[in-house]
Specification:
alpha/beta; 17% strand; seven-stranded parallel beta sheet; two-stranded antiparallel sheet; 11 helices
Amino acid sequence: MHTHRIGDVEVSAIGLGAMPMSIEGRPDETRSLATLHAALDAGVTLIDTADAYHRDADEVGHNETLIAKALASHDRGKDVLVATKGGHLRPGDGSWTLDGSPRHLKEACEASLRRLGVEAIGLYQFHRPDPRVPYAESVGAVRDLLDEGKIRMAGISNANPDQIRQANEILGGRLVSVQNQFSPAFRSSEPELRLCDELGIAFLPWSPLGGISRARELGSAYAPFARVAGAHGVSPQRVCLAWMLAKSPVVVPIPGASRPETILDSLAATGLLLSAEEIAELDAV
């Protein structure tokens, strides 16, 4: 397994986005655990989650609890960096709400610690800016958690370049990751990717294949990805992830999966080398 770095931690160049195992349309727990274990067997050492990855109002942290169970039942579980997030909420009606208040973030972190069964969270990320709360206050709460030893590393998600710079300043240069949406269908985070490359901060594309409902359609929606995939005899999804990895060593995609075969195909992207001409063709999409 090829590796990249998040802060001072070396992780698999592709992580596992665990959200599909806990929201609407999720599989049963047996298949989810099989997916997580298949990822660990294949060398995954980064799993992305959040307290808001759940379906019903009374099961906050469902995904974190599932991951904790999978890691505890696998001999490589201790080698995994778990990245979780706080600041997003799901009332249980399918909607998403926000609470970036320092009080909520600190309470959310304590709850995540309990569910994950750890003394300190490996990577804790502020999930999404809350327009009702000054950004500096939200990031300041994450800084406090870092200073208190509740979290080992700090990140932000869904941030723009100004927020990345501000967060890094508030954290005293200790910002290690930015998790933004990025895919062939969503290219507007390229400025953030370039800034992360400049600053040496890990960039974690979420929904790198276009999201749960669109991932299977990647090849039909974007002909160049299908053409390059055909030339290599692989899936368009694998080409997509290889294309992202070629952009910068700070990129660590976290494709979602709820089946063992899906995450295994994604992980194979680390061994797919694209030519400069192919990368240029894909960049032009």
